[in-house]
Amino acid sequence: MSAAPGDPLIGRLIDGRYQVRSRIARGGMATVYLATDQRLDRLVAVKIMHGHLADDSQFKERFIQEARSAARLAHPNVVNVFDQGQDAESAYLVMEYLPGITLRELLQDYGALTPEQTLDIGEAVLAGLSAAHKAGIVHRDLKPENVLLADDGRIKIGDFGLARAASANTATGAALLGTIAYLSPELITRGIADTRSDIYALGIMMFEMLTGEQPFKGEQPMQIAYQHANDSVPAPSSVNPDVPAELDELVLWATSREPADRPADARALLEQLRETARSLATSIVATGPQQTMVLPPLSTYQPSTAETTVIAPLTTAGARAAAPPADPGTPAQQLMLAAPSRRRRGIALMLIVLLVAGLAALGGWWFSAGPGGTVTVPEVTGASEAEARATLTDSGLIVLEPSTLEYSLDIEAGRVIRTDPAAGTALPRDAEITLIVSQGAEPTTLPDVRGVPEADARAALEDAGFVVAEERSEQFNGEIADGSVLAVRDAGGQGLEPGASSFRGTPVSLLVSVGAIPEVRGLTVEAAQAELARRGLTGVVESNVFDNDIANGSVIGYSAVPEIVAPGDTLGLVASRGPDLVEIPDVTGETISDAIEILEGAGFRTPETLDTNVPRLGWGLGVFGVQRTEPAGGESAVRGSTVQIVARY
């Protein structure tokens, strides 16, 4: 465990209490540090959310959820969470520090475990999981990475970041959460998790412990998800013939495709696992080597009052062989006769002790400082090349020259990325080892993929060395075709300009067009809402207005369209009330000028020329009377339409 070079948090005092000492691990959501709780003077693990996620309420909520879920559990097999808070812009959790390794690291080092080891680890995990299920908590992210094996033998479950209250209908949301290799069929197909989903994940872990591999494999995550949803998990013995039939049955029960066919919760599986362990232990005793028989003590054979009896040796059948009685002589004679025998036995015992001690010392030297000794490769990641060479040489290894250089986005130039063989590997003393040293991040340039189909854009970005996230954002756009890229974003969600300088290994994500917003003018309200729903939008009628062209109950258009519209948004609709009909005033007998004023006041238009030969010039005299209008007075017409005046002359 070494400090991360250049990490600004190393040495920092978090919230006036936790002094950060070194970095333990880094994940996609947070980094875990070793720290000292200065108030209680103890080592703790502090999990600090990445700064660029500070504005994401979903990640913050997941942090708080982890603290609340774990805090409700007080069990020897669950990692304790001591504290949770906010320091500067980052949320943090303070957890129990457990020096050791994860189950994932154990599997990487040893491959398949024995049935006894699998049962021991499974029992500990199920005991902690039982406490969670009893408290109404579903873990939802059970995997070997979240099972901690402490140096002192304790086994604990950690990382309740995806935990939720258990119910028959606990859903994961719009996207699958958890690790795909351990997701149950119902999580993949329906997005629903309960206690039996944790049982399925534990069954997959037991399969992996017994066989050294996962039951389903694929080049893409969706291939693995499809197998979980449609195929049954095979028996572990089909991969490892040494797996007992009892453990086959236990794994197949836990990984049944139908939740109803699995154990109801961790307690039910724990009871069966313990029964299976007892059954296997009995079977091993019955069929294995016989136990050592303890002979009764010498006091059992009481001497007679008349004379000393010689106990005959046991035959192979366990019966005493017959022996003639012997005359022991006087007590003094017995002691004289026994003295040389005792002396010889003492000398022989002393020689045996000296020989065993010598062999033990020789063996200790041979397997420690001697040629037969082994060395565990120390962890030197992040150290300078000179420091790493000194550490490895002091450990009894030979460091090859020159070191191998590699680009690294995370390790600064001149510092060690890893060793070959890896840290933790047991090697013979004076074995050769290679240092892989960072030469810094490899520069690259962001290609212009705007308007390019998503698959082609991903290929271009990956060729340029970028790590493109599987998840992408979507947005409506009338200029960029559906399925083509609108923008490339960095890990913080900020858009990146084409041609910008960057480094290989930089994570990016895509903003992809889903085409133009649907055209809904002239559709009925119901049809418009259905069309919007088909495209992932919601339509809500916000106003109803008269419209001479759109029928009553149909949509005129959108009330106001935001600059950015994404699937899941809501758009306001303007619905038509049909034409605005108004009754035409009766202006018969009125002068032309009065008639025009009345009609226009009612919302109608009058033509420039009357239906007579009288020019407009004479209208202002008001001497001409109105004979009728077309349409006639009293009839209804659309507001704003033209009414023709017919004058008398």
Describe the model.
The structure is a single chain. The chain contains 13 helices and 33 strands. It is an alpha+beta fold and 649 residues long. The protein folds into six domains: 13-96, 2-Layer Sandwich (Phosphorylase Kinase, domain 1), CATH 3.30.200.20; 100-284, Transferase(Phosphotransferase) domain 1 (Transferase(Phosphotransferase), domain 1); 377-438, Trypsin Inhibitor V, Chain A (2-Layer Sandwich); 443-513, Trypsin Inhibitor V, Chain A; 525-576, Trypsin Inhibitor V, Chain A (2-Layer Sandwich); 581-647, Trypsin Inhibitor V, Chain A. A six-stranded antiparallel beta sheet has the order 1-2-3-4-6-5, with helices on one face. Strands 21, 22, 23, 24 and 26 form a five-stranded mixed beta sheet that branches. Strands 15, 16, 17 and 19 form a four-stranded mixed beta sheet that branches. Strand 2 and strand 3 (30-37) form a beta hairpin. The protein is elongated.
